[in-house]
């Protein structure tokens, strides 16, 4: 049974009223809502209303109240001016995407120095009802704005685990650390599904995305330790930005470290990128992590990275993400 944050329930908004004009209108607002059979609850200078009544309230407040002194929040997020609530309402479509489980898993090969497929990274793509694709940045922007990141991350993770059954190789699966409250609770469904599919846990490498936004390292360590206890492996991406010290990296003990695309493309001719790539490599070897370069598109960059000591490689040079797994590079 997923936690409440993973369920797509109707949003409930806390509306804060300031100023005598707005407070004097509370009985009128309550009467207006009750006549329309819309849920409303009064708690001092606050109104609690469901999303189904928000536009009604917004229309009413525009005509009869002082908008500049009305604020809202939901799920204990920060208070915002009421006029910003429309952007959240406009992104309600993300709820239906999650309810329909409208995610399709793609795979991109990860190769070794001999250009043999070592693993695949599973990437999530999302579809509208007409079958057209939705860009990932649209999806995650909408999910963040409506507090649906937890539900979306779980949906993608479960779909990727299911898809891995046809890959039959090591599988890299992205996850967002901030979308997990408690690993023992939030990740138990992932572990259960892997067991049901009879996939060896060592086949999975859970990859931390948005590394540069990880503020709570202790929480991340708790998640990674849980994965480790269950037999899974894990990778860190964008190491230069998110994990600046060797001590921190050694503490996290990742099995894989991914060099970001911005240091990969053009590295064969760019001295500054070469310096970053070499430093990254030294960090990886010091903590016994396998270095992986992603975003490779040119043969020259691949050869330079390979000669420098990188062990794994990913990018369009070896294959684009596809629904049907690519089985051979050459």
TrEMBL record:
Lineage top rank: taxon: Bacteria
Recorded hits in PROSITE patterns, A to Z, give: EAL
Please name the InterPro entries in this protein's record. Cyclic-di-GMP_PDE-like, EAL_dom, EAL_sf
Gene3D superfamilies on file: EAL domain (3.20.20.450)
Among CDD domains, the record links this protein to:
EAL
Q: Which residues form the EAL domain?
A: 87-330
Pfam families cross-referenced by the UniProt entry: EAL
Q: PANTHER family per the record?
A: CYCLIC DI-GMP PHOSPHODIESTERASE PDEF, SIGNALING PROTEIN YKOW
Question: Per its record, how is this protein called by name?
Answer: Diguanylate phosphodiesterase
